[in-house]
Write a structure and sequence with these properties.
CATH topology: MetI-like fold
CATH superfamily: MetI-like
Shape: globular
Oligomer: single chain
Low-confidence stretches: 1-6, 328-333
Strand content: under 5%
Keywords: Cell membrane, Membrane, Phosphate transport, Transmembrane, Transmembrane helix, Transport
Strand order of the largest sheet: 1-2
Domain ABC transmembrane type-1: 92-318
Structural class: mainly alpha
Membrane topology: Multi-pass membrane protein
Number of helices: 12
Pfam families: BPD_transp_1
Number of domains: 1
Main location: membrane
CATH architecture: Orthogonal Bundle
Mean pLDDT: 83
Number of strands: 2
């Protein structure tokens, strides 16, 4: 006798079910609206960035076409002269050097604070300390600038003399001229204080995302607290640390008011970081824009284009480093 029992139809693959569900969900009005708003926001951002780049490039070309010198290597700034001359060598040097000093000071301290809040401090102390760090990020730039000019500059004279006496052989800390501590070194310290809460907050949140099982497994194998941090926490948060550092570096590169209040500007490149003088892109634009003529404003915009390009290069390099370290990202842990 032939059996007429029908065989059970196998269920469709899981991927087909997910695809059918996603197809149905995209047909809803709310999903279509959200998709359109998200896509429009992304396109708007790209358009704004492109518009900024086009504007800066157009005005920069107007200025560069009237300058007979190489503005990338010239140290003189006199757009109102005959012939007009403007150079960004001093501004590029001051911007990069002050940012490097700020990063060298802020990044290790920020990582230490983030580790203390997330893994060492008791909960009753960690919450208030994290709140204080958050408050530091909300302080306006002008307040930092006034504090730096009134308090930091006078009290750094003693540190500058000590560095000149014991570290002057390095040439960098050789103070060759007298004057108040309105130097790139002071600006770097002030910028380090300003970017410290940004790096700390982001790094702390990354450290708190470390899987608890990773830490418990390391402790079960006999690892000490520091070994757990070195083998589990820091590798997991490496991409986050890089991202936080780039956020801080972006603010250090573009900081304006605080630098303008503290620094004594001069168009002279000097390797003696303790000597007064120097300049940055943002400080020069803020201090000279109101009194500049039409060509002078174009020259300032040309320097802003260089700062724009430096910022894009820094962020691009950060994205490249993070992409090469995908094995350490939290999403893959």
């Amino acid at each position: 006798m032939v059996s007429t029992t029908k065989q059970a139809t196998p269920p469709p693959p899981r991927g087909d079910i997910d695809n059918s569900r996603s197809a149905k969900s995209t047909g809803r009005a709310g999903d279509r609206i959200f998709l359109g708003l998200s896509r429009g926001s992304g396109i708007t951002l790209l358009v704004i960035m492109a518009a900024i780049a086009v504007f800066l490039s157009y005005r920069a070309v107007l200025a560069i076409s009237q300058d007979s010198t190489n503005f990338l290597t010239t140290s003189e700034w006199n757009p109102a002269g005959q012939p007009p001359v403007f150079g960004i060598a001093v501004l590029a040097f001051g911007t990069v050097v002050s940012s490097i000093i700020a990063m060298a000071i802020a990044v290790p301290v920020a990582i230490g604070i983030a580790l203390f809040i997330s893994h060492y401090a008791p909960r009753k102390l960690a919450a208030p300390l994290a709140y204080v760090v958050d408050l530091l990020a909300a302080v306006p730039s002008i307040i930092y600038g006034l504090w730096g000019a009134i308090f930091l500059v006078p009290y750094l004279d003693g540190l500058n003399k000590w560095l000149d006496q014991y570290m002057g052989w390095t040439y960098i800390f050789d103070k060759s001229s007298d004057g108040p501590a309105r130097s790139l070194f002071t600006v770097g310290i002030l910028l380090a204080i300003m970017i410290l809460p940004i790096i700390t907050n982001v790094t702390r949140e990354v450290f708190l995302q470390v899987p608890r099982m990773h830490e418990e497994a390391a402790l079960a194998l006999g690892a000490t607290r520091w070994e757990v941090i070195r083998m589990s926490v820091l590798p997991f948060g490496r991409s986050g640390i890089i991202s936080a550092s780039m956020l801080g570096l972006g603010r250090a590169l573009g900081e304006t008011i605080a630098v303008a209040v503290v620094l004594s500007p001069s168009f002279l490149i000097s390797g003696h970081l303790l000597d007064p003088g120097g300049g940055t892109f943002a400080q020069n634009i803020a201090s000279k824009f109101n009194e500049a003529n039409e060509f002078g404003r174009d020259a300032l915009i040309a320097s802003g284009l260089v700062l724009f390009a430096i910022t894009l290069l820094v962020n691009g390099a950060a994205r490249w480093i993070i992409a090469r370290r995908k094995e350490y990202s939290g999403a893959n842990a």
